[in-house]
Amino acid sequence: EVQLVQSGPEVKKPGESLTISCKASGYSFSTYWIGWVRQMPGQGLELMGIIYPGDSDIRYSPSFQGQVTISADQSITSAYLQWTSLQASDTAIYYCVRRRDGYNYFDHWGQGALVTVSS
Amino acid sequence: QSMLTQPPSVSAAPGQKVTISCSGNLSNIGRNYVSWYQHVPGTAPKLLIYDNNRRPSGIPDRFSGSKSGTSATLGITGLQTGDEADYYCLTGDSSLSAAIFGGGTKLTVL
Known about the structure:
The complex is a heterodimer.
Chain A: E1 3-6, E2 10-12, E3 18-25, E4 32-39, E5 45-52, E6 57-60, E7 69-73, E8 78-83, E9 92-100, E10 106-109, E11 113-117
Parallel strand pairs in A: 2-11
Antiparallel strand pairs in A: 1-3, 3-8, 4-5, 4-9, 5-6, 7-8, 9-10, 9-11
Chain B: E1 9-12, E2 18-23, E3 34-39, E4 46-49, E5 63-68, E6 71-76, E7 85-93, E8 98-101, E9 105-109
């Protein structure tokens, strides 16, 4: 069974750093893309970027380029989303998603991780 | 504001049919496959339709998808109260070199 299990909720202050994780299991981790999707409070879904763990090819959506860092560790089949300096506007639910190579849909989703940034 | 336009809300009675539109342009829907997602707040979104009109295993045939030109449509027949959710379309955009979601549509089953 394919599973994407995300790390738990986080409460941080502005300016702090943060890395959240997504542990994948039940499939060949290196041959599927893993992406991150943001949902800000009361807003819709936004794709932040995706990574292909097999060769660490990373594609950021234009709005998120330079704002976050996406990475993956094949040895522990995990993907990461990192901030170096959080802002209140980063408060959102973040979902990791799986995408089959060569296709443009997300067939499995993590449970979501709520990140709250508040002073 | 998303480059893919969806109606903010639709509603219909149980047992009825509803359609949700997703309007784009030649750089996105016009040249890429469309997928659709159901999102019940507080849960993970779920893939309903991929490659314009294909259903993953386990998705009932009450859900259907179509695409024509630069627009796509999700259809839901035999509405149930459990279908109340937010629905999103997704496609690639060649000008952005990224996938984009529609703004989402809230379905209310009256």
